[in-house]
Amino acid sequence: MLTRFYIEEHVKNALQEDMTFGDITTDYLTNEDDIFECELNTRTDGIFCGREVFETVFRVLSDKVKIKFYVKDGDEIKKGQTLADIAGPAKYVLTGERTALNYIQRMSGIATETNKYKKAIGGYKAKIVDTRKNTPGFRAFEKYSVKAGGGSLHRFNLSDCAMIKDNHIKYAGSLTAAVNKLKDNISHAHKIEVECDTLEQVEECLKCGVDIIMLDNMTQDEMQRAVKLIDARAVVEASGNVNLSTIKDIAATGVDIISSSAIVAKAPVLDLGLDAK
C-alpha cells in the first residue's frame, strides 16, 4: 500500500513545507560534524505504526542518520518503552524531528484506535473497516494505519466501487433506476453497494442484485431483520452510530462489515517523543 517512492515524495513535500528557507534555529546552533544521539520513546500504551515513514524523513535529509528500531508496525507498545535509537549529524536529526513525529504520532493513533474497535467486536465475525472521511493528501497513510491496527479497508476512492447514496437515488429517480444505469455502464470488475435507510430499500436491492447492502443508521432490531432477509445474498454492511459502546451489539446482529469514520477521524495522536540520551 505504501511504496517507497510514494512515501519519499510525500515526505519531501512535508519537509519542504516545514523548512522552505532552512531551519534557522538548528542551522545556526549546530556545526556540520556535531553528532546527536536520542531515543524514540512512547509516553502511553498503544499500537505502533509508521516505521518506514519515520526512517524516510531522516534518510531524505541525510544518509548519515542511523536508526535502530526495536519494534515493527502493528506491535503493541507500552508507556515508557524505547522504540528506537537515533544517532547522526545534529543538524539533520533536530531538523527532521517534528516532521518524523507528526507522521508516526498520527499513524500510531489511528492504529491504536482501530485496534480498540476490533477488540470490542469480540468473537463475532464482523470486520471493522474505515470510510472515505480521510485527511486530504494523507489517505494512503491513514488506510495503512487501519490495517496495522488490525482493521480492514473500505473502498480506496470513488473509482474503486460504485456506492449509491440517498442523493444518487433522488437524482436517478429511484434506487432501481440508479442500479440499472450503473450496471449498464461500469466494468464487470466493479461491485455495486447501496446505502439503505429502510427494509423496503433492502428488498429493492435484493431484486436488483446488488453486491453490498449498507444498513445506514438502523436499529438493532432492523439490522437483525435485514440480515435474515438478505440471507447471504449480498455482503451486509452496518454504518452509523458506531462507537466503542455500540459496536459489539451491532456485530451481534450478524452483519459482515461495520464501517466507522471514528477510527480515523476521531483517533487521537499517540504521545511519542524524541529524547536526548
Helix content: 40-55%
Annotation field: number of helices: 11
Q: What coarse outline follows from CA principal-axis ratios?
A: elongated
Class from secondary-structure proportions: alpha/beta
Radius of gyration: 23 Å
**Quantity of strands, as a count:** 12
Low-confidence stretches: none
- The arrangement of helices and strands along the chain is HHEEHEEEHEHEHHEHEHEHEHE
User: How much strand?
Assistant: 15-25%
Across the major sheet, the strand order is 6-11-10-9-8-7
Give the CA-CA distance, first to last residue.
Answer: 34 Å
Largest sheet: 6 strands, parallel
Mean of pLDDT: 97
Multimeric state of these chains? Answer: single chain
Q: Care to describe what's here?
A:
By secondary structure, the chain is an alpha/beta fold. The chain is built from eleven helices and twelve strands. It has helices at residues 4-18, 24-29, 51-61, 90-121, 139-148, 166-172, 175-185, 199-208, 220-230, 247-251, 262-265; strands at 35-42, 46-47, 66-69, 76-77, 82-89, 127-129, 162-164, 192-196, 212-216, 235-239, 257-259, 272-276.
Write the layout of secondary structure elements.
Layout: H1 4-18, H2 24-29, E1 35-42, E2 46-47, H3 51-61, E3 66-69, E4 76-77, E5 82-89, H4 90-121, E6 127-129, H5 139-148, E7 162-164, H6 166-172, H7 175-185, E8 192-196, H8 199-208, E9 212-216, H9 220-230, E10 235-239, H10 247-251, E11 257-259, H11 262-265, E12 272-276
Parallel strand pairs: 6-11, 7-8, 8-9, 9-10, 10-11
Antiparallel strand pairs: 1-5, 1-12, 2-4, 3-5
Helix pairs in contact: 1-3, 3-4, 4-5, 6-7, 7-8, 8-9
